[in-house]
Amino acid sequence: MGEFEFAPTVLVSVREFDPNNDREGVEAVERICEVGPNGKLSLFTDLHGDPICRVRNSPTFLMLIAEIGQETVGMIRGCIKTVTCGKKLHRQGKSNTETEPKQVPIYTKLAYILGLRVSPHHRRMGIGFKLVQSMEEWFRDNGAEYAYMATEKDNVASVKLFTDKCGYSKFRTPCILANPVFAHHVRISNKVTIIELSPNDAELLYRSKLATTEFFPRDVDSVLGNRLSLGTFLAVPRVGSYQPDTWSGSARFLLDPPPSWAILSVWNCKDVFTLEVKGVSRVKKTLAKTTRVLDRVFPWLRLPSVPNFFEPFGFLFLYGLGGEGPQAQQMLRALCGFAHNLAKDRGCEVVATEVSSQEPLRCAIPHWKMLSCEEDLWCIKRLGEDYSDGSLGDWTKSPPGFSIFVDPREV
């Protein structure tokens, strides 16, 4: 996409990733960038030989690489979709007296940056900045109005690059909640019935209840119908009119919902990439293995065993979490238990999700603190000023809502 001169003898070119010729160079940079500090735990990602696996399910995506001569020294990935950025009141009917106004979503075209890597031997040369600039140029050419990225709040180099040099501002601080999958199934409350929804029923319920949630994708039907989506599950009181064998669809459910209910969908990340924890002492590995052995031998004790994180493992991601009513937390807790058992049956070691730090249902999501991140950081930038968001104004200056919809295609 262009060439940039950083010093009299160094010329860096940025161009689109070629899967036929660039895979080996990209994998080499990925490996060297994931070497952790001595004596500290490190989380390694195996992309299964597909450098664009984390964006290829998005509606529009691109990967760029930076080169010095024939050597790959950096890369960046980006994707674009249309999401909810706010809501407004809309009155249905021909007159103001026919119906009560309801909230409808305000959509915007949003770009997402992920997977920015620069070889440690070529840092402090402006390569990361140029990769971001080149990706933003592609975003603008494709009509994106905002761009955002996610990073750990303690990643000082990444935060400084985006906020100090690239013009991004700190926007949202969601939390990543992860729970291990034990060697035993977890018990699910006998007061709750879980119903698996068809993609069409799930879409109708989501558009009716969560469409005004920040970051809700307008093409949610594509997400729900993706081969990686393992299903959408609805929890309702066991004593009630809604049961799996008599389920008559979301349309009827929305007309007469139970006092409390909850919903979530499950995404299979295991078939996209796997993770591995390195840098753990032999003593800790032995202790973790002991808990697994005890859990398998005495499953009725339901011990909180530590899975084998020290070899490549997969995980399931929970998205579209929501619910209503005084027992919504109990319903969601049952759904999380159901997802745990689904993960165990599919050979996954972790169940994870990401929610707003203000999410009302957050306390119902089982998680281990040592596996979770209490404060992820999302930074955002407005890419142009020649358009209007109407009643919303500038999204980058809007206060956070209670909930966000985290698209599993960007995990």
Describe, in plain words, how this protein is organized in 3D:
The chain starts with a strand and ends in a 29-residue tail after the last strand. The protein has 2 domains: 2-173 and 378-410, Aminopeptidase, CATH 3.40.630.30; 177-371, 3-Layer(aba) Sandwich (Aminopeptidase), CATH 3.40.630. Strands 1-2-4-5-6-7-16-8 form an 8-stranded mixed sheet, with helices on both faces. Strands 9-15-14-12-11-10 form a 6-stranded mixed sheet, sandwiched between helices. Strands 3-13 form a two-stranded antiparallel ribbon. 22% of the residues lie in helices and 32% in strands. The protein has helices spanning 23-33, 127-141, 156-165, 199-209, 220-224, 250-255, 282-297, 328-345; strands at 2-7, 10-16, 42-46, 60-68, 71-90, 102-118, 146-152, 169-172, 175-180, 192-197, 229-237, 261-268, 274-278, 315-324, 350-355, 376-382. It has 8 helices and 16 strands. The radius of gyration is 23 Å and the shape is globular. It is an alpha+beta fold and 411 residues long. A hairpin with a 2-residue loop joins strand 1 (2-7) and strand 2.
